[in-house]
What we know:
The protein has three helices and 18 strands. By secondary structure, the protein is mainly beta. The chain folds into four domains: about 5-65, CATH 2.40.50.140; about 75-135, CATH 2.40.50.140; about 135-205, CATH 2.40.50.140; about 210-275, Arc Repressor Mutant, subunit A (Orthogonal Bundle). Helix 1 (about 210-225) packs across helix 3 (about 250-265).
Amino acid sequence: MKLGKYNTLVYAKNTDFGIYLKDTMISEEEVLLPKKWVPSDLEIGDPMEVFLYKDSKGRLLATTMKPKVTLGSIARLKVTAVTKIGAFLDWGLEKELLLPFAEQTRRVKEGEEILIALYTDKSSRLAATMKLYPYLSLRSPYTIGDEVTGTVYESSENFGVFVAVDDQYSALIPRREISGKGPAVGGQVTARISRIHEDGKIDLDLRKKAYLQMDDDAQCLLNLLQECGGVLPVSDRSDPEQIRELTGMSKNAFKRAVGRLYKERRIELAQDRITLI
């Protein structure tokens, strides 16, 4: 019998408070289906599909109710309450699903919808986690250059921002592509696929293709010059990290924007600075 999954079991015996189901009539293991969920026309030996979970006392139970998520899969669920032990989620069953604090990548609020996966904890009980990395698919239908939308589910100072594309595929916005803190955990992003690794993992770029991004970058650089009194202490010879820290652009993007503004005769160039005309 598979916890957190749909199981096709057979009606083995009747009691005053429900019926017991087994994998086969000769199996020793059995599970209770409470009386309120027993079909009226069911007979001994009949098969039926049920979902298996555990009650508050840790006892295995069957139900004909349809949960919004099954073991190992991902779904968006509504937070119904936040307590001292974690948050509780509406997953379609009478007993709400626990999201422990240790499995939250950010603090959640009552009433919001969040992206979670269903797993079994150390006590072999079903619980929710916002740490989605192990549950996301590596088999996406996309190619390099495609524009996609996803949910930010985690952020790392070392690696970057982790995104669930279409809430099901594994993707990363590398740290080198992010200026400032980057997109917030829980938020939606639209990005371009810049790389697909051999194992199927996706790298994302928040910027448009170079020829489309150049106009935006040139305008941002122009605005930054105006805010800084008409002078920026960087040039196309500056260190890439210095350029990124000051402008939020990669060195290549900065050079393209500078080239656009210089061609339009809006800036002057020096070895260590650019100046607004």
